[in-house]
Amino acid sequence: MTDASPWAAGAAYIDGRFMPVGEAAIPITDWGYRRSDVTYDVVGVRDGAFFRLDDHVRRFRASMDSFRLRPPESDAAIKAVLHRCVALAGLRDAYVAMDCLRGRPPAGAPYHPAHARNYLAAFALPWISLVRPEVMERGAHLVVAETLRIPARSVDPRAKNFHWADLTRGQFEAHDRGADFCVLLDEDGHVTEGPGFNVFLVAGGRLATPDAGVLEGITRDSVIALCGELGLPVAVRPVAAAELRDADEIILVTTAGGVMPAARIDGRILGNDRPGPVYRRLHDAFWAKRAAGWHATPVDYAGA
Ligand code: PLP
To answer: Do residues 51 and 287 make contact, with C-beta atoms less than 8 angstroms apart?
Structure first.
């Protein structure tokens, strides 16, 4: 496959059909688009293997159940679609998304989501990282946004969703204040998460990450496991905004980037304005274990 191949930019699947990602489109009338009535998940591929594929598909199914979305594909069929997208694009390192869209009620049916035929969309793109290399080098600059996270009783953040108006507004606050990323609080002043990542703080050698109001991130879960292996104490508990602002280190974690450092929050410099030592240990251990095949499922390239 040459770079001129339309598949080199990525491969997609929509409702039963595979195509180069540049040809993939959804109907403009779809409620997945018009109402953000869609759920999704993202799994990474490094060195030709998925990371925690079963866990991502399990979470995707839980998100679909939460939003009462039901595509025709079984979990096994979804996994086969993801393998094929990566294989068709010929990617060794990939960002692999799966979405389930509401669709729209057919003509004549009641104008209610219960009557829509839901369907699956998926795509594989060359690997994407949330954080640019220079930000990995210096550590991200964060702000605690004025904008609050949408209450969990309105939109459950454990079901992955595109109700991103709060996170997007927070990103403009960050931009206006010369920072890279926002972190949002809940109505009680507790830390939740940022646009596409979970948050850990380090204070006095102990880590903490919010217990509620967040996506239960698969990278977060992996980092908690790593803390156990490295003998780093970690608590999953409510985290007050003041604790985050006073932390020794802040670490951001996500599929699209892994373990990422922060160096400033609300203009305050953490440590020496560079990625901290606990971040380094976790980052290095995470990628060393990944390279050694931790939770890896090799991509089935033969199936393409
Ligand atoms: N929080 C939000 C809002 C996200 O969108 C994401 C990932 O996209 C995460 C956290 C991190 O989750 P994971 O580690 O499973 O990618």
So the answer is: no
